[in-house]
Structures are given as C-alpha cells and as structure tokens.
Amino acid sequence: MKVIGHMISGAVIGITIGFMMALVFSVLNQTATFMPSTPEFVARFSNNLMATIVSAGLWALMGIVFDVTSYLIFEKSQWSITHQTIVHFIVTYACFTPLAIIADWFPVQHYFLSYTLEFVIIYVMMWFISMQIAKAKVRRLNQLLHENKS
C-alpha cells in the first residue's frame, strides 16, 4: 500500500518539477507559447496540447521512478549507504534515461557521455553527503553513550 502512495506522490512531484522546469525554459528562451519540452519533441505532435499531455505523463513516470526507488532502496536499513547508493544509481539510471531520451532532453549521440558523467557526479555527491551525515550521527551517539557512562 505504501508503494501506491509513493507512486502518487512521485507522479505529483514529477509533474510539478517538470512543469516548472518547462515553464522556466520557455521564459528563458522567450518562446511565444509554452514549450513542454524541446522543439524537436513538440514537433512530433499535432499540437502543443498533445505534447504537453505526453510530457506530463513522462514527468509523472520520472517522479514515480525516483520516489518509489528511493522508498524501496533507502528503507533497507541492513544495506550500507554505499550499497543503497549504487543500487539506486543503477535502477534510476536504467529507468530514467529512456524517459529522458523519449522526452528529447538531449541528443543521444552527442550528450550521452556528459549526461552519464553528470549522473555519476550527482550520485557521488549524494553518497558523500550521506556518509558525512551518518558519521555525524555516529559521533553524536558515541558522545551520548560516553556521557551516560560518566
């Protein structure tokens, strides 16, 4: 049941983030109409409304990927932070990348390597921050244990 809740919240968050990003890019590119994705993506559809509907579906799926995988993977407390991060990276990369390609967010031939590198860098940063937080918690717990012994 919790997975369904995460699917719903992931879809809402994905649509919200996707819409806001598309809105910002439309404003920055000074387009005459709202562009839900790249001009190449929008050109595949008979009108802008259809492109927006399909984009919303893709944004929802993207949100679901991140929300559900985060719930399923990071709730496994018996796994180390490194194990959780690697598994989450592999699953989200494998699920998110095809959605980003379908949305025409980058031409596969030219930007796939830089996209992959950015994805790796983001996960290394997430892992590092998670490790620092865990170390701080351990230090605090050790400090509390030491204080209780005294």
Automatic annotation (TrEMBL):
Transmembrane spans: 7-28, 48-74, 86-106, 112-130
InterPro entries assigned to the protein according to its UniProt record, in alphabetical order: DUF3021
One Pfam family recorded for the sequence: DUF3021
Superkingdom to which the source organism belongs: Bacteria
Keywords: Membrane, Transmembrane, Transmembrane helix
Protein name: DUF3021 domain-containing protein
Organism from which the protein derives: Secundilactobacillus pentosiphilus
